[in-house]
Amino acid sequence: MKQPTASPVERLAVRSEAAVARVRKLRESPIPVIEVGAATCGRAAGALETITGFEQALADNGVEAEIRRVGCLGHCYAEPLVTIRYPGFPPLLYQKIGAGEAGILVRSFLKDGSDPCYEYLIGALEPDENFPTLMDYPRYLFEKRVVMEHCGLIDPEDIDHYLAVGGYRALAAGLEKSGEWVLEEVKAANLRGRGGAGFPAGRKWEIARAVDRNPKLVICNGDEGDPGAYMDRTLLESNPHQVLEGLALAALAVGAPSALLYIRAEYPLAVEIMEHAIAAAERENLLGDDIMGSGVSLEVSVFKGSGAFVCGEETALIQSLEGRRGMPQPRPPYPAVAGLNDLPTVINNVKTLSTVPSIIRNGHQWFTGIGTEHSPGTAIFSVVGEVEYPGLVEVPMGATLEHLVFDVCGGIKDGKALKAVQIGGPSGGCLPASLLETEIDFDSLKKVGAMMGSGGLVVMNEDTCMVEVARYFTDFTQGESCGKCTYCRIGTHHLREILQSITVGEGRLEELDDLEEISRAVIRGSLCSLGKTAPNPVLTTLRFFKDEYLAHLEEKRCPARMCRSLIAYYIDLEACARGCDACVACCPTEAIFTTSNRKKAIDQEKCVKCGECVYACPPEYDAVRRVSPPGLIPDQGIEPLPADDKDEA
Amino acid sequence: MLEQLLAGLEPSERAAIDDEELQILKDVEAEMPVFAAERSQLLPILQHIQGRHGYLPKLALQMVADYLGVTIGKVYGIATFYNQFKFNPPGRNPIKVCLGTACHVKGGEIILENFERRLEITEGQTSPDREYSLERVACIGCCALAPAVVVGDKVEAYVTPSKVEGIITEIEVRKAMAAREQERNEAANG
Fold first, then answer.
1. Which of A136, A167, A197 is the last residue of a domain?
2. From B181's CA, which of A210, A531, A557, B115 has a CA 20 to 30 Å away?
3. Any residues with CB less than 8 A from the CB of A60 and at least 6 apart, and which?
4. Whole-model pTM?
């Protein structure tokens, strides 16, 4: 069926050239272009209000400019992010642009190009003499962006943007050569599955390809459920065509005529953008029937996951596709041999598939040159919690945790001390500061009891209680346990109950041994990795932070002063200012009253320990104290102001 | 299908169905044939009903079961397995408090408590006037903006107990403004 006129590569070259020309024309347009990062996180920070602000200000000032929505750069701390392309200036990236700042940018800069508003500027996207460039910042300098290279810089809803940066070239090359060639390249690159377990993708494809039963199916696993990780969503929302190209290459390598994107229903924007991208790619004949005249066809559809953490597990995901409860099944047979409807089914994570096009484009030697010997390539982490610059970070495998937290993400906020790094979500573990030299790759992390997992990384400072963190994760896995295996179902329940009792100060010392014993039983007695890894947070905190458990048990004290049953707030009368009412208004339970000397005090009966008064108290007084155990509140001889005085107060 | 189902109910059960629920059931009956009567369509069908009406009425589950030729027990068992499905009508202002890791560390639990106290309902409930519903969600993927809350479709970042108060006040003020507007329009038209 091959058309004699032009090969896929030739056809794509013609199309790409047109895309390059169109995108260049857009970028070099005589009127300024405003690009607003409007993925889910940008929207949460107010990107849609920013867009309205720009529209309003442009109209009010009679300025002509084009507003475009782009994806997410991963710099969540600086949202909403705006890039302005003004003729005669390099493209400039601005941070924290709300509707008000949008108005200022229009009046000072976009109107006549007089003042590029340095106060909101991060830097120029391209090297320039007059502006600092992004490469001058540690964040950009240390990152190695392979998968996220174009995120936030291209319009996810305009296929020309992806084509203009070399998009679908890998697919064209694959179609021109063969599926075997794609398979061999990915195998030689030793691309390991980015979903957490690290199984080589090429090996998975090979198994499915070798099975003599058809039709085969390739599934992109976008059921990202780890509470604290959101890079899959960002890749789906910010560069959907890269995912599709990877998916098409996987299908080609496996020999599958159809592919499926399994995306959480909680990610409505990702679903919308992917559906839009599939339609666009089909219109351009980059997907669908007889792709670029190669004779190869691929039908792609979206399935919305209904919100079950366990469905990230391959066999559970397949169960849910069949309209059942998402309960994992014993393996073997592996899905690659017998998956959906008993046919060979390859399931790859969004990050894995997004990496594939770059491997095919640049060759496997290029890929193995990045990262470590056994874990080549890059790792994407969502670094959140108490760091200065939280967000998505892509670094080469083998970088140390210390490098990631301190060099790339700017260290700990407010000059506090780092206590722990929670890595890998509910399946991972809490690593103490002493293990910061651990290299980030699949094997090193396993050795210290954590896991790569899906790439969630929560940085915790001295104010986070490790017992409480273990309780939180156990509570999560308990709720998400599908209930199939007794040890997972009941074991996690008991773990949670014990941890709960410790955090409220009712635990018993001998229960520490119970925690370990139950944990080991859950690991041994569970079928899937949800259960096998569920005790990791408990075991790692017990191993590295046993003193905190002991403080809770023996002294009824929470060293981090986080567990609310074990703390109390009081106002230091020495520091409190006469007549100041800042804390009174903020208290949600009206627990703060005026004392006889017209200062403030907290009624411990009414106090719910939300901590709001700590923030409300003006920094020059800083009078609210938090203590653990609650018995440490000093007797300050407080008496309420007599009722008849209150009118004057 | 719906008529038969209703005919088979006890009079008291029949009386418990209000107009709103009846309309939902009629919609379900009309839209069901869009989906193939196959087991693999179960989740898409449930998602469709949930997406359009905000919850899955019990009789709608029965209709889905009949359509696919499985028992209602099977359908209910599967629907309750997944977090997405709700079985009570949502409030006009659904509030979802994120309790993902980052939000939890930054006090998401306290935020949930403040909503519970302010709205006088507990997590998973809808206020009696159907104005608000409150639920906890595992992670909405806005970890760098923690603690986060979703009110309607809008994500609120860096929520504090005072901001909880502000969010509710804003809804109340908007409601009052809309009511005044309507009154004025009615006065102008009448």
1. A136
2. B115
3. none
4. 0.92
